[in-house]
Specification:
Number of strands: 14
Number of domains: 2
Protein name: Carbamoyl dehydratase HypE
CATH topology of the largest domain: Phosphoribosyl-aminoimidazole Synthetase, Chain A, domain 2
Strand order of the largest sheet: 9-11-8-12-10-13-14
CATH architecture of the largest domain: Alpha-Beta Complex
EC number: 4.2.1.-
GO biological process, one term: protein maturation
Shape: globular
Pfam family, one: AIRS
Radius of gyration: 21 Å
Structural class: alpha+beta
CATH class of the largest domain: Alpha Beta
CATH superfamily of the largest domain: PurM-like C-terminal domain
Family: Belongs to the HypE family.
C-alpha cells in the first residue's frame, strides 16, 4: 500500500535566521548585524528626529570651547560570571571604550541596575565591587545611578545600563566617516577571546584550556596613539577607531567601509587569531572574525604615520600584539573583501542577526 502524501505547512517551518519581514522583535535585532542597523535606521532615528550617525560609538557635543563625548550602553550577558571577568567588568570597560573610540578620555560614568526578584545580594555585591574597582583602575568614577527591581521572570537576574561622559582633546577628530583610501588598518591584538570565553561557560564546553575574556579599557591606548601621531607631525593621522564588539571584526570594518564610502581589503593571514579561538570556532562552526571582543580596537591610520602609531600601541600592554591587517582602498567603495591564506579573495559581510547571542 502506498504511503499517504505528506502535507507540509510552511507555517510550521523553523528558520535558523530571523525573517526580515517580521512584525515583532527577534533576538537578531540585538546582534549588531544587519537587523540591528535596520531597526535603528528605520524605527528609532525617524521616531527621535535626530541626525546622529548610527555607526558612531558616542555622540560628540560642543560645550563652549570643549568637545564632549557622550555614550550609553546596556549589558545583558549570560552567564554573569565568566573566565577573566563578569558583567560589571564589561559594563565599565565597554562604556570607556565607546568614549575612547571617539578620541575621548573618560570623565565620569553612570550605572543603572534592573534586578530580578530573587537575585542573591552576594552576587550583586561582587558585581558592584568589580565595577567600582574597574572604574578606579581606569582613572574615572561612577558618579550616579538608578536601581529598579522587577518580579520573578521579569529579567534574567541582572541587567546593567551605563552612560559615560568624556572630553575630546582639541584638534582630535575621529569618526567612521573619516577613513580614507590608503589608510593602514591596525588591530590592537588577538581577536575572538571574549565570545569564546562566554560560549565555553554558557554551553559547558571544555576546549582543553581556559579562554579568558579580553575585557579591558582602551582609553590609555588611544591617548598613546594620538600622542605618537602628533609627535610624528600629524595630530590627525588617526582617522577612525572602532571596538569590534557584537559582530566582531567584520561588522566593524563593513560599517566603516559604508560610512566612509571606501573599500577595505583585509589580509586574513595577518589577523591575529589565537589557536584556542580558532579551534573553538572550528568546533562550533563559527567564523572567528565575527566573534565578539571587549578589549580590542581597530584603527584606520594615515600610511605616512602608521609605523609611529603602531610602535606606540605595541609599547603598552593593551596593544603589545597589535598588527597591520589590511588597507582602505578607493576600489569597491562600501565593500570589504578578505584575501584568504589560500590566495583567493572573498567578500565579507555582516551577519543578518548574530553568531553568539548575549555576549555583552
Amino acid at each position: 500500500m502506498p504511503e499517504p502524501p505528506v502535507t507540509v505547512d510552511p507555517a510550521d517551518w523553523v528558520c535558523p535566521l530571523p525573517l526580515r519581514s517580521t512584525r515583532r522583535i527577534v533576538l537578531g535585532h540585538g546582534g549588531g548585524g544587519v537587523l540591528s542597523e535596520e531597526l535603528i535606521n528605520n524605527l528609532f532615528l525617524p521616531a527621535f528626529g535626530t541626525a546622529s550617525e548610527t555607526s558612531r560609538d558616542s555622540a560628540l557635543l560642543d560645550v563652549g570651547a570643549s568637545r564632549i563625548a557622550l555614550t550609553t550602553d546596556s549589558y545583558v550577558v549570560q552567564p554573569l560570571f565568566f573566565p577573566g571577568g563578569n558583567i560589571g567588568h564589561l559594563a565599565v570597560n565597554g562604556t570607556i571604550n565607546d568614549l575612547a573610540c571617539s578620541g575621548a578620555q573618560p570623565l565620569a560614568l553612570t550605572a543603572g541596575f534592573i534586578l530580578e526578584e530573587g537575585l542573591e545580594l552576594d552576587v550583586l555585591g561582587i558585581i558592584a565591587a568589580t565595577m567600582g574597582r574597574a572604574a578606579v583602575d581606569a582613572g574615572t568614577s561612577i558618579v550616579t545611578g538608578d536601581t529598579k527591581v522587577v518580579g520573578k521572570g521579569g529579567a534574567d537576574q541582572l541587567f546593567i545600563n551605563t552612560a559615560g561622559v568624556g572630553v575630546v582633546p582639541a584638534g582630535v577628530t575621529i569618526g567612521p566617516d573619516r577613513a580614507r583610501p590608503g589608510d593602514v588598518i591596525i588591530v590592537s591584538g588577538p581577536i575572538g577571546e571574549h565570545g569564546v570565553a562566554i560560549m565555553s561557560v554558557r554551553e559547558g564546553i571544555d576546549f582543553g584550556t581556559v579562554v579568558t575574556t579580553d575585557s579591558a579599557p582602551l582609553h590609555r591606548l588611544v591617548a598613546a596613539m594620538l600622542a605618537a601621531s602628533a609627535a610624528d607631525g600629524d595630530p590627525g593621522a588617526v582617522h577612525t577607531l572602532r571596538d569590534p564588539t557584537r559582530g566582531g571584526l567584520l561588522a566593524a570594518v563593513v560599517e566603516i567601509a559604508r560610512a566612509a564610502a571606501v573599500g577595505i581589503e583585509l589580509d586574513e593571514a595577518a589577523i591575529p587569531v589565537p589557536e584556542t579561538v580558532a579551534s573553538a570556532c572550528s568546533f562550533l562552526g563559527l567564523d572567528p572574525l565575527q566573534v565578539a571582543n571587549e578589549g580590542k580596537m581597530v584603527a584606520f591610520v594615515d600610511p605616512d604615520h602608521s609605523e609611529a602609531v603602531l610602535a606606540a600601541m605595541r609599547s603598552l600592554p593593551e596593544g603589545a600584539d597589535a598588527a597591520v591587517i589590511g588597507r582602505a582602498v578607493a576600489a569597491h567603495p562600501g565593500m570589504a573583501v578578505a584575501r584568504t591564506p589560500f590566495g583567493t579573495t572573498r567578500v565579507v559581510e555582516r551577519e543578518l542577526g548574530e553568531q553568539l547571542p548575549r555576549i555583552c
